[in-house]
Queue: 3 jobs
Job 1
Amino acid sequence: MADAYNSFSERMATAYSCNNDLPDVSSEEFIAKLADYNAYVSSQRKENVTFGLWSSYINMVQLLLTFIRGTHESNWDLHVAAVRLMIPCYFSYGRQNYARYLPTY
């Protein structure tokens, strides 16, 4: 999972490259906060089913927005990275035909 995240974050960094005052996502401080957030989300998912539902919904919407951006900007790397990250969602939500044929895409 960490390798997939690193690969995805590198593709996102190249896709969203701009020169403004946004925080550096590769900084140690950001990575530590992201790890804390992920630990919080995973603990809350175990305790509260509704939290898990909305958390997975937010993740799917973020993936969809990334997919749409890659498509609109003709950014093939971002498009394919978003499709790769969508495949487990199709398996977990019972869409086996989509999950089966997307890797050939």
Job 2
Amino acid sequence: MVHTEQNKHETVGTMNKTDPVIVIGAGLVGSMIACFLSQKGYKVKLYERRGDMRKIEMSAGRSINLALSTRGLTALTEIGLRDEILQISIPMYGRMIHPKEGQPAFQAYSKDGKSAIHSVSRGDMNCKFMTLAEKDGVEISFDQKCLNVDFDRGDVKFFDEVQNREYTVHGQTILATDGAYSLARLAMTKTPRYDYSQTYLTHGYKELHIPPGPQGQHLIDKHALHIWPRGTYMMIALPNMDGSFTVTCFFPYEGEHGFDRLDNADDDTILNFFKSDFKDAHDLMPDLLQDWRRNPTSSLVTIKCFPWSVGGSCCLLGDASHAIVPFFGQGMNAGFEDCHIFAKTLAEYSGDHWADVFKRFQDERKVNTDAIADMAQENFIEMRDSVADTEFQFRKKVQALLGTEFPGVFNSRYEWVSFSNLPYSEAKRMGQVNDKIVDELVRDIDHDITKIDMNKAKELMAKYFPQSRL
């Protein structure tokens, strides 16, 4: 089909296999949704502001590795990359808690200790997505800065940073996967009755590095997500394939242990702080000071907005529509689940209007992305403080006991979120039910798990899960 300048915009929002679907942003979600669409026969053009990361070294200081769990694996299976990604990942079966004094303690993620989340390089995974997308026929343009989105015409204006020129592209629809500071979403905020909020934590983050040992080995347990909880602040470490660990400091901006003070402190103050508060990690980071000075301090933001679309001309996916803080390890997984649900919605639709698909998609996803946003903020408190608390640890033991005694009926909230595809909103509700059950069972038993009344537990299971077979 050949379009004239006069009639080409008449096809905006109408499905066809001739006009391209324009995808803004070739990060993880943009590259994945491009794969989904191209595999379904759509012509896709993908535009990325950065250069081709397969050919250049990207800057440091941005979440080098991420935690991949069931929701993400489900989407990877559908585009045919699950096994290939797992080959470049490291399974983590639980948390290794490093107290300020004493020995580290392991807390399994699942009741049987066999379920794992997977530490994987953001960059390596993104490269594989882009290579698959190109293999499937996606046209990717790099160094293209998005300047404006015209929803009425279905046009996107870009600036080519190599050729130093502005130009406009047109497509049958636009998918904006351009991240937490999405320009497409900014344009949507100017439409009538648009709801938008952004909430920053009082904490930020900075990345450090534990190098591999002399023979390339991991110097601490590679099959655990390491946490140094310190009440109002914490540090975590995830393993990399090369034997190193990516360490992330989550500190407040203000106060004695805040970035505002430490970023402006002298070398001895920084080193003494880590030696005092994170002694075992300090001893494994020979380049701590250089990393601290070189890597940026970044903010943590939760973004909620609605609607995610404008008619059939544009729809937001991933962080562009629901950026969350990283404390449940679900930011990437939620974005991948967006792609899975979007593709499923598209496959079940028999019409030819993108507006219908967008509405069904956003109406299903909004309540669930709001739920994981809330749970991620709650998990920050758990990770930095509660994991080291005696009451918290006892409740975890009770949950594990109930999961063993009532398999298929009782799962922890973490298991529902990380090891199932249960909608996030339902996982949140199930977590609230679990809390009620545990509250009743631990009352007046003085942290003695042998005093758990299993007959009462069975009654509670029947009360809260009446459809289950006990």
Job 3
Amino acid sequence: LVSNHGGRQLDGARSSIDVLEEVVNELRRNGADEKRFEVYVDGGIRRGTDVFKALALGARAVGVGRGVLYGMVEYGEKGAERYLGLLREEFEGCMRMMGVRNVREIRRDMVERRIGGIFAEVEKTQ
């Protein structure tokens, strides 16, 4: 599980999605059998596009606790269900725009990695 456990209290701490690819690559580099391990990411997943990015960077699944919790606090079970429905709709819309029919078709090259975080300056490759 890749998570900073809501731990952005440290000024400058990297988000879970910012370190996700490094964690997956390190596991591979150390000979982890990808058929025997799964990587999950928790934290910072708010939209369906975030789910897509996490899967493209190597996550098997994502945690979405905060959004579900907010939905429940305001509207009970129906609020949680509505949030999950919206998340799914956004994710499926993103998949359609990226031209993939199922999660197995999501590839790493479908997202652009950026220096200093997923939304910072584009990494220059030579």
